[in-house]
Fold:
Amino acid sequence: MGRKLLTEHINVEGIDTFEVYRKHGGYRSVEKAIKTMTPDEVVEEVKKSGLRGRGGAGFPTGMKWSFLAKPEGVPRYLVCNADESEPGTFKDRQLMSKLPHLLIEGMITSSYALGANTSYIYIRGELLYVLRILEKAIAEAYAAGFLGKNILGSGYDLDLHVHPGGGAYICGEETALLESLEGKRGNPRNKPPFPAVQGLYARPTVVNNVESIAAVPVIVNEGGDEYAKIGIGRSTGTKLISACGHLNKPGIYEIELGLPVEEFIYSDEYCGGIWKGRNLKAVVAGGSSVPILPTELILKTAAGENRLMTYESLSDGGFVTGTMLGSGGFIAMDETTCIVRNTWNFSRFYHHESCGQCSPCREGTGWLEKVLHRLEHGHGHMEDIDLLVSVAKQIEGNTICPLGEAAAWPVAAAVRHFRDEFEWHVTHAKQAAQPGAVYPGAAVLA
Amino acid sequence: MAKITFDGVEVEVPDGTTILNAARQIGGSIVPPAMCYYTPLKGSGGKCRACLVRVAAGSAKDPRPMPKLVASCVTPVQDGMVVENTTSEQVLNVRKGIVEMLLINHPLDCPVCDQAGECDLQNFAFEHGVSTTRYQEERRTFEKIDIGPLIQLHMTRCILCYRCVYTADQIAKGDRVHGVLGRGDAAEIGTYIENIIDNDFSGNVIDVCPVGALTDKTFRFKQRVWFTKPVNAHRDCPKCSGNVVLWYKGKDVLRVTARKDEYGEVKEWICNECRFEKKETADWTIEGPAHIDRSSVISANHYELPVLNQSVVADLPESTQRELAKNPPLKLG
Structure:
């Protein structure tokens, strides 16, 4: 079992209260940072740690922080993106509801590093109970003098607000999130300008994922170099993986990056293998928007090496034979899963969640869903399969925000790796349209 | 000032100019099409993706190409930028895809649509699209929404360019009743619970609409636009500039619109009184026939070719030359 940096005390009774959290070493990083370090030193530690954004894109957090524009006399903002809504990803909810003070501690330390005097946690609208937990914890932090004016007598002020969204997936995109936070319709903005220059209220802003911010206290306490020792290469530290699907032990696991995928799925320490003694068919490794991979490619790369849980190893082979670590939403599917139905389900989600601002995504996501619906329900044609690939390609890269890609990638990947199953849905349309129909394997097509 | 190369033509523009406006300084058929960008409206652009171009070199400082195609209407130029529009196969292919996307849910009811003949989508599809469709599904439709006695909103035709939303917000400043409801392909322009935009300048939403989603109720089904004759006229209006175009059929003024430039953008906003109420020749001082630049059917018989403002250099890329040969520009100076 690897080291647990974030979730070490997650099961301690009452850890969501200030006293218990403080007793277990909480808020040490705030004291250390504010009393003994300059903001730039904190940024330097985060840079050294090699921490990469845990929300999906994997952009180095320290680098993001150093891009923040710092004009004189202009306020800066730190915004925590807690609008976790990717199908298959549910790590932040757990972290916030069980360890609210860890996020708040991270927010204080990070805000200090960035010189922000007002910070926001933008939380998904559906997680209203978590919002209450956070608000209670924030009140406790105010009472203890870790928030508000003159924190720990240092002269540094910070106000922290929690703001619920209205429950739109698109508001997890950072510029749509900022629009929503400003009280507008959650439409993503055109970039440039980037949030680091013109973000919230047209001020320089950093938007970070919950898990990235929660890792900052650990980095400040232990030092960036120490943190960077965990993991392999440019994938440092630990990552929360929310495993779901046909596993014996689905749940949230904190792993050291570099764990072999095979061990993660089959070892009893982690997911404990596939349920009901069945075989693994496919895995979506990083939340529903990353390309799906069949068993042979998720366990081993195309070159025959063991696939590891790292940013690099999972994306080995590009999108032809690889995928992405993404947000860590690990969805495993057993041999009875219908890939066409699954792809249709993902597509339906993106169709529903497209903001409708730019034309390729607005029209394309609906088109993909309708074609997949037709295939799944026995009304497809052979040329529909190529149509899917073509439409996905027309969306990809031509949209304002990454939602277009998120909708296109899973469809393109499903056709790439499971084309025979799509063809079976055309040639055996009636049979495939039955509820619970399972593709019997490539042999029937021969 | 920043010097950029657009399809092989060099042009120098002030810093902060968008790629699209730099291209418009060159003029001619190498200007990317724009369905949502509208110069007088702040915040418009970036939505339709018709103007996507390839940036082959980001700037003189950092000459790497940009990884994705960029929307030329919202991307500012950098000194030393090299942009490919008609010279890039990729851009032309993507543009075909954009036409297809815009058309899959469009009703294609041009034969009964008042906008036909002066429709940006029609022009765009004609120039860049393919003549067949791969879309077999049912098209999205909406009920017609009544937004007052003068303007008809026919949402089914809408391409969600947001121009009318910005117009209602910035020009016809009222109670902010005009906006976008819903999301994805269910998004619709609307006045919340069928309200009326009560403002003297609300009629301008008709002029900015690139398609037939917002039409003039006083002109609906009166006449095809290409059978009417545009005439410049003005009057002494206490509210607006009073500079308009009258559209004649015989002796009758069938409709009044604002004057537009060659990219279909309104030069001066006009008020509802001029637009809807002054429909007699006696109300106006006639200036002379209006000049229609765009390649719409309105100007079928008094057509003029696009104007190239920049003196064309000898060593244009072959594809630019081919593009220009198809549609040779008039040279100024």
The mean pLDDT of chain A is 94.
